[in-house]
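Q: Given only this backbone (449 positions), what sequence would you predict?
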């Protein structure tokens, strides 16, 4: 397999496992420079990206490459700052009747942060997202005066970013409004850099004249007091001038832990709209639309088979579609249902170990902003006890572990305590939508991180 197609196949797998903002940030200017002695050399645009990828994604990259080419034994990284043109040239496939998939994230507008590929025209509407779509469309027609702020939340990979960017792109068309889209993680990074460099005045100046401020994945502000303080001031200054503020999160404002009450109050002061999970027909329609965008077409039974078997989120649907497109390009023959079954089977095998005890502990501790060691310790603090009970519930419900086994895993607790904890959360889930939503998010995170 050519190194370009090998890397695209690996990226298709990686894209299933990390958030879209992270994928765009860290992988959009990467490629395989060469393969030598069963080692893949990955070119990256800067030393910072090299350090971050090596620290955070090394194992995931190696695993994805091995899944595509079992001969790959190791990977290394080199810095190749000007690899964009080379990459665009490299992804051309000779003797192919179909257009090559492009890394469309490269077309981001550096001034607005918007990607022109995300529009209302290619946003598939269904019962699961029609309220969020209607609110977003209304905001794009009259920014600053309806639904301000607009807060959109959903589980990961269901189209929040697409909708936010579509709103921004529609407003940006007339060039009369200054629009800025920014992932929360980048906003946090800018604040940290400004503080370290004693440039807070420059930071504040950047945001004071924005007409439409769009910030994605606001839940990452959780627990970051200084960032929350600066964001609060930025929010207030823009809001008082009738500037439009649009936010997204993977959970309702009430469920964002370690968030100041005044920020939570601001988030809840406008319009809150959620995006649910699409039904089979809508998932098939989304697949068909995305295939058309990429210049490909498949039989309807292929779309419906994927839609019937990939139900987690839209990002995973697109990941499967990308793998199918790549396979068709590599083999130069039309994809059939049997090919699709094999691709989906391989993906399921890759993610079958997603619910490990250590990963569950980390996911829950991150969600509730508590220490991992406290969960398996003796602490009786309310937030620790709740985190511990959630873990017990998920272990029992999803893995069907015995109560004595869970007791052993959770720090040697008596198994009757474990039984009580499970029953308590099981009953709460039936009558408390907030706890049900929190558990749903945690379970979703276990299979997407």
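A: Predicted residues:
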């Amino acid at each position: 397999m050519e190194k370009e197609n090998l890397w695209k196949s690996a990226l298709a797998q990686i894209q299933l496992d990390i958030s879209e903002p992270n994928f765009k940030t860290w992988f959009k200017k990467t490629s395989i420079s060469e393969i030598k002695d069963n080692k893949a050399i990955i070119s990256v645009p800067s030393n910072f990206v090299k350090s971050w990828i090596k620290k955070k994604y090394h194992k995931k990259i190696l695993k994805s490459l091995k899944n595509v080419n079992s001969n790959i034994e190791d990977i290394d990284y080199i810095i190749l700052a000007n690899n964009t043109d080379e990459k665009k040239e490299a992804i051309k496939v000779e003797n192919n009747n179909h257009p090559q998939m492009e890394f469309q994230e490269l077309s981001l507008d550096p001034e607005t942060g918007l990607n022109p590929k995300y529009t209302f025209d290619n946003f598939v509407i269904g019962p699961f997202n029609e309220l969020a779509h209607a609110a977003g469309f209304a905001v794009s027609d009259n920014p600053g005066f309806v639904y301000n702020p607009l807060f959109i939340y959903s589980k990961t990979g269901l189209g929040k970013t697409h909708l936010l960017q579509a709103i921004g792109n529609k407003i940006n068309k007339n060039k009369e409004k200054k629009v800025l889209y920014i992932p929360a993680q980048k906003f946090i990074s800018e604040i940290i850099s400004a503080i370290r460099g004693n440039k807070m005045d420059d930071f504040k100046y950047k945001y004071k004249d924005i007409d439409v401020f769009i910030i994605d994945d606001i839940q990452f502000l959780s627990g970051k007091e200084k960032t929350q303080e600066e964001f609060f001031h930025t929010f207030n200054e823009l809001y008082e001038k009738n500037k439009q503020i649009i936010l997204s999160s993977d959970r309702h404002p009430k469920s964002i832990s370690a968030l100041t009450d005044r920020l939570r109050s601001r988030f809840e002061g406008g319009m809150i709209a959620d995006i649910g999970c699409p039904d089979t027909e809508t998932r098939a329609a989304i697949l068909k639309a995305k295939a058309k965008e990429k210049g490909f077409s498949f039989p309807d039974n292929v779309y419906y088979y994927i839609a019937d078997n990939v139900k987690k989120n839209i990002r995973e649907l697109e990941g499967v579609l990308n793998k199918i497109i790549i396979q068709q390009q590599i083999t130069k023959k039309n994809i059939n249902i049997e090919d699709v079954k094999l691709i989906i089977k391989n993906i399921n095998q890759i993610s079958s170990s997603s619910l490990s005890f250590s990963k569950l502990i980390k996911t829950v501790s991150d969600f509730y902003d508590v220490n991992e060691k406290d969960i398996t310790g003796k602490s009786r603090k309310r937030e620790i006890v709740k985190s511990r009970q959630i873990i017990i519930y998920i272990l029992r419900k999803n893995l069907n572990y015995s109560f004595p086994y869970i007791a052993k895993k959770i720090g040697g607790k008596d198994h009757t305590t474990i039984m009580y904890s499970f029953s308590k959360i099981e009953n709460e889930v039936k009558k408390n939508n907030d706890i049900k939503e929190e558990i749903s998010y945690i379970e979703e995170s276990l299979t997407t991180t």
